[in-house]
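Why predict the complex rather than its parts? Because the way molecules touch one another can change local conformation, and only a joint prediction can capture that. The input here totals 608 residues.
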Amino acid sequence: MHRIALSGKIGTQNRTVVEEVWAVASALVSARITPDAVSKVARLARLTLSDAELDRATDQLADMLDHFADIDALDLDDVQPMTQPTPLVNVLRDDVVQPGLDRDEVLAEAPRAEDGRFRVPPIVGLAE
Amino acid sequence: MTADAAPLPTTATGIAAAIRHGSVSAVDIVERHLREIDRREPEIHAFNTVLADEARTRAAEIDAQVAAGGDPGPLAGVPVALKDNMCTRGIPTTCSSRILDGWKPPYDATIVTKLRDAGAVVIGKTNLDEFAMGSSTENSAFGATHNPHDLSRVPGGSSGGSAAAVAAGFAPLGLGSDTGGSIRQPAALCGVVGVKPTYGAVSRLGLIAFASSLDQIGPLTNTVEDSAVLLEAISGHDPLDSTSIAQGPLELTSELDRGVEGLRVGRITDLPQGASPDVIERVDQAFDALRDSGATIVDVRVPAFTYGLTAYYLIAPAEASSNLARYDGVRFGLREEAPDTNAMYMATRTAGFGDEVKRRIMLGTYALSAGYYDAYYGRALKVRRRIADDLAHAYADADVLVLPSSPSVAFPMGDKTADPMSMYLCDTYTIPSNLTGHPGISVPFGTGEAGLPVGVQVLAPALGDGLMFRAAAELERRAP
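Output of the joint prediction:
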């Protein structure tokens, strides 16, 4: 939002005022997530965004990250990360054959199956 | 007088007792609930699937068992509404997402097996925010659920379908999942009891994962006792869930009549602001009621509580971005055909996921990506530890904590859909106990704005579920 408002003013208003505003705001603006970064994230997550979706996602993610900056001020140097509510230990069982899911039942729910396996399009050699 | 004129029990415990005694049939109970569903479901939309035939068949089995002198179990013949992110073998389980539309799981969730063993009757699969991501049940691929108390308002979420089903009388028992408040907040907004038990107390096998270190299954019911009975039936160790606590079922019903004499009830003095005045007034009354009943109110500080929202909305999407990577069109659900696998993954996920799910997957992917991992995910995990430490301090002085369940009563539909951050703030008071794995319960406690229900929340340390139920039962007895 800030980015759009500022770029609209550059070139049409008094330079020195704009430059002053830009100088104050640029730190904030540069810290905000960019459409390029969102585009890269979408690609990593195997999602395709239209241009309009990309703009909206960029604004929304930027708003969230602004809110999440509330933890920036905390001194967390000596704090141990907590990944789980309860201490996890390896759970092992005896190495004996046990019944699993029925293969036909599982494959019946697959989008495509063939010869007792999942059928997928070619993995290499085409686009990208 | 015919048998029809006899007053019918409405609570799950009352229904189960009557069915076990043979004074009412399970088929009759199921038919009565199906009639109620016929009457109001079109305007409420609590269910993705109503399992009328299956419920009738199961009820007839229960009746046959009773007739033969058998005991079907503590939930004999009681209809249960299951959130549609819990796997039911051969019955569609959608997570209210197009990406799983039509998929039928090849196995039952552990809780489904336990419900059957206890004699319960699954009457339907309920609507939710897609993959349990949301606080209003508006983010469903199959349309929003409406609050039975006011159809123009949300039921809360993400377990809004189960909460609405219980509030509307479609089923005396509901099951939801709570990752950041998804049982307790809709319970508060629909005027029912909602419980998130201690992490690991209920098996997550067959609960479709959103954020694995936070997800927990729990009850939505009309009474505290019904929640206790349901939770006793579904809790206990499951060797197939590596996070399941190695102990037997929770013992809760024995706690309900113990009162709160001598109980130390904590009031968090630095609780994040944002609760509306009507909610604050009811919470203040709850403290007064508990004090009148013999509890001691103590002031405690939990400075890191306020950072829970940030920690949660970095950790939960990070875990979700990993969990939801499995939806790629290969093994189950939707596939959008494309010339190669990568294009097929992208087309399938783009078509199958809704906006909020995409937003959280992207946020989580970003928080975990190279260069940002330490700044976002890593720091969030440290804040999580801070919250656990601060709560441990508070629990040195208090046995349980009391606070709002939701910042407000049920809000109008569409109010928060345009601004994701405003929706996330609904979870302010429920999130910390998910981050720490502690139990929490929301109990209806009077009404607020527009005569809508207000929920008061009781929190306890890990495995303090019994103490929590003690306080909750007292609040229920003293509710205005």
